[in-house]
Amino acid sequence: MIPVLPTVLTVLALVAAAWSVLLAILDHPITLSTKPTLGLAVAVLTLEAGLVVQLIAGIVQVASTDRELETATFVGYLIGVVVVLPLGAFWSLAERSRWGAGVLAVACLSVPVMVLRMSQLWTAHA
Amino acid sequence: MPSLADTTRSGPGRLLIAVYGIFAIAATARSAVQIATRFGHAPLAFLLSAFAAAVYLVATAALAGVVDRRVAWAACGVELAGVLAVGAASLVAPAAFPEPTVWSGFGSGYGFVPLVLPVLGLLWLRHTGNAVRPQ
């Protein structure tokens, strides 16, 4: 895995999750027409872009590495973490209440979990 | 007047379905990898993982209103029975579970979310059903 990138993605995901939780507490639906929700959208898009970079770099590394690796599981996480965020974002946008922000918080929180599992798999046989 | 299906996938239901969806994706991917790469190692555990994955997929779709509401009741009920039965079995006969499933130890590997999820699903189905047909 690219050094530093997992950490950056984890921090960014936790910030976006905290932001979403705050919006949910303040009962602020994700409308994309207010500054706080637009800011959150930028954070989520940046996170997703980083996850796509991780996917491409990860697949290149899996193809070229000599280390023992549970390849299928690792690639599954690489793809899964890229898929979850857009699905969660669309699911949250259709809900015009605080629960929409709650959906986004859950989707964002799933990212650090999967990034952590990936890091564990990557270092398991190092 | 929103339909019962709309009500069920709105508000807290939206969040519930999102968590169900994440578990559906996670359990399906995990069990696909287990069965494809090392099925002979723990056939019982891996078949249970696949069954759990199927239940999560059906529950997600049914709660979201894609299929009949009665299917949602059945899926959440089967899920609760499954997590209780497999959770108990994994404690009584750990030798039968050389590899963990989603429901082993009552879902302890997943922060007990698999135990809480069906209860919330059933409560939500009852709540939304009552709201539409006030007594």
What can you tell me about this protein's structure?
The complex is a heterodimer of chains A (126) and B (135). With 126 residues, chain A is an all-alpha fold. Chain A has one domain (5-124). Helices cover 80% and strands 0% of the residues of chain A. Chain A contains 4 helices and no strands. In chain A, helix 1 packs antiparallel against helix 4 (98-124) and helix 2 (35-64) packs antiparallel against helix 3 (71-93). Chain A is elongated. Chain B has 135 residues and is mostly helical. Chain B contains 5 helices and no strands. Chain B has helices at 4-8, 12-38, 43-63, 69-92, 113-132. Chain B starts with a helix and ends with a helix. The mean pLDDT of chain B is 90. The chains are: A mainly alpha (126), B mainly alpha (135). Chains A and B meet through helix 3 and helix 4 of A and helix 2 of B.
Low-pLDDT residue spans of chain A: none
Q: So how many helices of chain A?
A: 4
Largest contact between chains = A-B, 21 and 19 residues
Average pLDDT metric of chain B: 90
Q: What gap, in angstroms, lies between the N and C termini of chain A?
A: 12 Å
